[in-house]
Design brief:
globular, 19% helix, alpha/beta, 16 strands, 6 helices, single chain, seven-stranded mixed beta sheet, 288 residues
Length: 288
């Protein structure tokens, strides 16, 4: 199994040169519009679409919970619950790394039950991050089954249409099952959203015509660097491209495709954030 993992993951370094197709958008960025409770920032981004019937739809993106059942975790859940009830998004997206260490897996039902109770009839979709995929001793389909018990759809190289929007989910780039998809996943002329854990996964997927019909991608993983210094920015990011894709909105040359990278809401149990507050992202479709 290790040989299969290594042979699939490490050769992805050949995609290093492709990152030059992506640039930080100066005219489109995550803007802080308020604070949720005591701990979370609410960031907003507009996604241009051509269909006026899709204008006004809202997508909520939450990534990198790293849930371990702490008091801070429960406060974040309470803050997210209040925000969901206030803004009533059309779809809630979970960007992976929902779990913390293996000894905390039994605490996940507390999070999932609280989240889905707040969402009510709002559909919730998710992808696996590297923390879920790294727990390779678990039975195949463990997280898919766990999510399903709470009405959450886990997208693993699969798609779903919700509120007229086509969502495609890829597991984290570290998975040996990464991107086993046909080229026609996204439908021409529709609003197509790509969901995956890491920005590295978006760049690696930029092969052939795979990204041509996608409107935007949502990812996290970087924690925004987690430690940032004024005027300098992030000091380290777990990415092939270091701190280039730490957080924010990025465009792709030659297309209208955008990549929204959230700094997420959690951190490792022994870690902390500095000048990098946790955030959730609400994306609104606007007709332009």
């Amino acid at each position: 199994m290790k040989d299969e993992f290594d042979s699939r993951y490490y050769p992805l370094k050949r995609f290093f040169h492709r990152h030059r197709r992506f640039y930080r958008c100066r005219d489109m960025r995550l803007s802080v519009i308020g604070k949720i409770g005591r701990l979370l920032l609410l960031c907003r981004v507009e996604i241009p679409v051509k269909d006026p019937q899709m204008a006004g739809k809202r997508l909520l993106f939450i990534s990198d919970w790293h849930w371990h059942g702490s008091e801070r975790n429960f406060q974040q859940l309470a803050d997210c619950t209040a925000m969901i009830k206030k803004f009533a998004p059309d779809v809630v997206m979970l960007g992976g790394d929902i779990s913390e260490d293996a000894d905390q897996l039994t605490a996940l039902p507390e999070l999932l039950s609280g989240l889905t109770e707040a969402c009510g009839k709002i559909p919730v979709i998710a992808v696996n991050g590297n923390w879920e995929i790294g727990k390779r001793w678990l039975q195949d389909g463990y997280f898919a089954g766990l999510y399903a018990r709470y009405g959450i759809t886990l997208l693993e190289n699969s798609g779903i249409t919700l509120s007229g929007i086509n969502f495609t989910g890829l597991p984290d780039i570290s998975s040996i099952d990464y991107r086993r998809l046909p080229e026609d996943t996204a439908k021409p002329g529709a609003v197509n959203i790509l969901l995956t854990h890491s920005p590295d996964g978006v760049i690696a997927a930029d092969k052939g015509k795979f990204l041509c019909n996608f409107t935007a991608a949502f990812c996290g993983h970087t924690h925004g660097g987690q430690i940032r210094l004024p005027l300098i920015g992030s000091l380290y990011c777990p990415s092939f491209y270091r701190c280039k894709f730490d957080r924010g909105v990025f465009g792709r040359r030659g297309s209208d495709f955008k990549v929204i990278i959230s700094s997420g809401i959690g951190e490792h149990r022994k870690g902390f954030r500095l000048f990098c507050p946790p955030e959730v992202v609400i994306a609104e479709l606007v007709c332009r």
